[in-house]
């Protein structure tokens, strides 16, 4: 009656002998150790795939499946790592807690001249330069300083017209009202023409008293500044509207930087900023964000930001490179964990919750703002939960984390048919 079962027994014996010949134990046999009471339950995939085997085997890469012994089983959705391995991996945990997230945004940029503080010396008449009072680029000038002397036939003619009109008005002092009104209109018209030429009243001779017109007049600086460009040369003829000097007030400069698209929400107009330069290590310059470009650069996915810096001592120079720090963040406390605790799979973010005794539970979380090395947790954790912040990737390598994540995701799935035996939990 027992003869038909003999081949099955022989097969089992053959499998056991083959497993022992490869240096591994079949399921149900004692494992190595001083107590010799560890029983091999099954073999798991060495790469963490949710695949187990009742007998020893190799994967597609020729790697041996790893034995799982009795007492090492874990609950579904958890992974377990032996205590001695935890010490070798240097696993460290931190507690999720409420804190104020602060973040400093670093922006690199270039110093530029404030466009509102630039102007050009451009005469409104044709003439010749007779003398240069400011003859070098980079010279500093103050409001009212003489820049150059010019001769212009049109200007001399306008002066002569004013002198004649003023002399006529003086001669008609005893004439009737209508005659004096006509003379006064001529004086006002000729004086307005001189003002339109941009000549200061102090540089005009007392034409009203009959003085002769001057053949050389002075053009003066309208405000304080520095000569950026100079095309004027002594003896040069110039035409109306021709730029002879380009000047700028450098007491305030712009730092133009690029902010990545993902950080634009952290920058606002009026925000205080601190700038540093390579030229003056250890020295900081304070400024204010005055403009955020409404247009995004499609090539770099950045937007230009303008930061206005005071430069009263003249240390900052246009075209210098600068680095700006913008303190940003939220003022209210939120639940946060260190950024090192986050395992990003590309499609979702996870943390490893320390359950004690070498047991860890992967927990999916939803993240918010970041700052100072911490990240806000919107859901998935509670205040006081211990999470792994050092060694979490090594735990992934030493355990069947992929299978545990899959088990956690399938916890709410319908149960398998009763005829199908459940697959045992796996780990590395």
Features:
7-stranded antiparallel β-sheet, Elongation Factor Tu (Ef-tu), domain 3, alpha+beta, 6-stranded antiparallel β-barrel, rod-shaped, conserved putative lor/sdh protein from methanococcus maripaludis s2 fold, 428 residues, disordered C terminus
**What structural category arises from helix and sheet content?**
alpha+beta
Mean pLDDT rating: 79
Helix count, DSSP H or I runs of 4 or more residues: 6
Low-confidence stretches: 1-24, 410-428
Straight-line distance between termini = 45 Å
Q: How many domain units?
A: 4
Helix fraction, binned, reads 10-25%
DSSP strand tally: 26
What features would you describe in this structure?
The protein is of the alpha+beta class. The chain has four domains: 3-69, no CATH class; 79-101 and 333-409, conserved putative lor/sdh protein from methanococcus maripaludis s2 fold (Beta Barrel), CATH 2.40.420; 104-115 and 250-329, Efflux pump adaptor protein, beta barrel domain (Elongation Factor Tu (Ef-tu), domain 3); 123-242, no CATH class. It is 18% helix and 34% strand. The strands form six sheets. Strands 4, 6, 21, 22, 23, 24 and 25 form a seven-stranded antiparallel sheet that branches. Helix 3 (153-171) packs antiparallel against helix 4. The radius of gyration is 43 Å and the shape is rod-shaped. Residues 1-24 and 410-428 have low confidence and may be disordered.
